[in-house]
Amino acid sequence: MSKSLPQSSILRVIGASSLGTLIEWYDFYIFGSLATIIGSQLFPEDAGASALINTLAIFAAGFIVRPFGALVFGRLGDLIGRKHTFLLTLVLMGGSTFLIGLIPSYKSIGYAAPILVLILRLVQGLALGGEYGGAATYVAEHAPSGKRGFFTSWIQTTATLGLFLSLGVIVISKNMIGSGAFADWGWRIPFLLSILLVGVSVYIRLRMHESPLFSKLKAEGKVAANPLKESFSKKTNFKMVLLALFGATMGQGVIWYTGQFYAQSFLENTCKLDFNVSRYILLWAIAFATPFFVVFGALSDRFGRKWIMLLGMLGGILLYRPIYQQFLDDTDVTTVSNSQVLEVSEPQTEIKPLGNSQQSLRMRKQVYHLASGMTYLKTETDTLKGGQSISAAQAVSYSDKTLPDGVFWKFVGLITLQVLFVTMVYGPIAAFLVELFPTRIRYTSMSLPYHIGNGVFGGLVPFIATLIASFPGATPLSGLWYPIGIAALSFVIGAVYLNNRQEENVND
């Protein structure tokens, strides 16, 4: 069993591990938070909806390679130690994020722009694949017996706090320089700032000591000679890897990315909320719900990990469709009657060139103020060539909606509920994974199922859900069947096969 450390030592371990992990999540999630703007920079201006889908695909690519990062860096972590391995992942993540902020736009270098960004996203994914397992293992191996859920739950807050930080930096940057400048070049600011955060974290991590359990193994000459072989060729351990994936992390992953990333994408791209409004809703929800990571982590020490995680999955399964239907109902302006319109601005016309062609886009904009308190921008567009319309069809969109206070706080409450589901599935899971595997192969064994569940099943939620909703005959809610289906499968497997309490590993 691990010996209890002084409270001050444990707090330093948590603080140093959490800060680096938070910054890595911040780096990783800036891209997703700015997907719409980045899509307009990486692809031709007339790409339309395909630019967003392609950008989300690049975003998803970083998740797909996370399991490979888990194998590479997990093996290093079990061979050379936890500290040096996740120090390396931090440098790779920070460097890639900084370079994304320097990539020229499509107008300057064509399709080389999205290709270069894709390569850097792959490096980010590999780095993140090695970060989480190291940080969670490091904290767990310092935590006293019976309090692993509580202490490792602080690491769990870093993913959401990293998203919170990325949203905050984005909103502040946009408000300081203005919407036009932010869409043009200001979106690079959050990427470039990350290098300062990484520098601070690297300095702190250099002062950290190796995990006492790993140091003990190394001193005794018991470090795994081949962690990959021991993790996946032994039937008993491989069974635990599969159980962790299909009974826990797969469902946890889709709940995480639906409640925080798909929710933001849905509000902005489907409900057409104003950029800042959608971010403010998520920021408030994260602020309200984040403490519950620690609450549910601590409760898992008392009552077990299993049912807290499964109840979080069940919440998403049962309530996602009613929640998102409410989003649609409260932002629908297609059926507004004249009596509900208080004021309409004079129409303003803007001519926007389409790439290097002779065609232009004519946009006629009017602002509508409704009796409900909602304000929205109505935009009508058609294509011009030499000043003449070349298409009789008109695309009418309702965008940049702002909400009355009552609806705004209702949306905050609905997103907070989704983030509470996230805290239930995510708060206990680090302790759950650590306790499944022996110390000598823990980094490798726990990292792979975690990053397949989160990186593949969870990270693909925004892309797959948006893609499904774009199919002919689909409704705006059709995309939700993907996370609901995955969560339901994981719930059934977990309910049948998971133990509510994991025994303390004999090597601890």
UniProtKB/TrEMBL annotation:
Record carries keyword Hydrolase: no
Annotated membrane topology: Multi-pass membrane protein
Residues that span the membrane, as ranges: 49-73, 85-103, 109-129, 150-173, 185-206, 240-259, 279-300, 307-324, 407-434, 455-474, 480-498
Family matches, as CDD domains: MFS_ShiA_like
Annotated compartments: Cell membrane
Gene Ontology CC terms, in alphabetical order: plasma membrane
Oxidoreductase is among the record's keywords: no
SUPFAM superfamilies assigned: MFS general substrate transporter
A GO molecular function held by the record: transmembrane transporter activity
Domain Major facilitator superfamily (MFS) profile: 13-502
InterPro entries linked to this entry: MFS_dom, MFS_sugar_transport-like, MFS_trans_sf, Sugar_transporter_CS
Keywords: Cell membrane, Membrane, Transmembrane, Transmembrane helix, Transport
Name of the protein in question: MFS transporter
Source organism of the structure: Pedobacter yulinensis
